[in-house]
């Protein structure tokens, strides 16, 4: 039964990965969509390794049982040489145990793998949200010099990153006076009753998460992590098109919406 504990841990870890990446979308709380095939492959490999270990353990057990039956059938006492050899082997076996060199058992620290495996199967940690965003500065947006003309319709759907770039870098001031619509989740804690409309973006996984924020003035204030679509106009201040302009919106409407399947993208609001 040497391999059985290892096999159980491998099977549980494999099932956990398959559960969050194949049967549900929970993996998107921790990694980008493009990482899903790698998680699926890892889950399959771990599951197969666990099943192979369990099969080998069972095979070894049957082999030992067969040797025991054959020894009973032979009967009799072993010869002196065999007796001495068996005594020497027993002495070496005991010597190994005394000095802690028996590697057949599973190291105790390995059982810590049981916790994340069970967590993936039965309890999925919540997605990153307001708690994470409130403890990090906004993600710096890329420098831009050319901006496409805004569409003629109103309100204009826009990502938080595009809004930030146009407020602080678009010298044409095309955003001035235009009605803008954006979607994100609520991060409370701004001055004078304001709050941040937020998106968290992953480059690879949750460990490298960065947030994009737009300060919202006015409108209903909903609980933290509530996903909303906000419609409003730029909150005037500083010089539009430069770094002195605040990345903020005066909200006319704040409408609660469902969380997107993959919330770790700075995507356009749904119609």
Percent helix range: 25-40%
Strand order of the largest sheet: 2-3-4-6-5
Low-confidence runs of at least 5 consecutive residues? 79-93, 95-104
Indicate the multimeric state.
Answer: single chain
Q: How many strand elements?
A: 6
Number of separate helices: 6
What is the C-alpha radius of gyration, as a whole number of Å? 31 Å
The termini sit apart by 59 Å
Shape: elongated
Mean of residue pLDDT values:
82
- Largest sheet report: 5 strands, mixed, barrel
Structural class determined from secondary elements: alpha/beta
What is the string of helix and strand elements? HHHHHEHEEEEE
| Percent of residues in β-strands | 15-25%
Name a few traits of the molecule.
single chain, 271 residues, alpha/beta, 5-stranded mixed barrel, 6 helices, 6 strands, elongated
Your description of this structure?
The chain is elongated and about 100 Å long. It is of the alpha/beta class and 271 residues long. A hairpin with an 8-residue loop joins strand 3 and strand 4. Strands 2-3-4-6-5 form a five-stranded mixed beta barrel. Helix content is 37%, strand content 15%. The model is unreliable at 79-93 and 95-104 (pLDDT under 50). It contains six helices and six strands, in the order αααααβαβββββ.
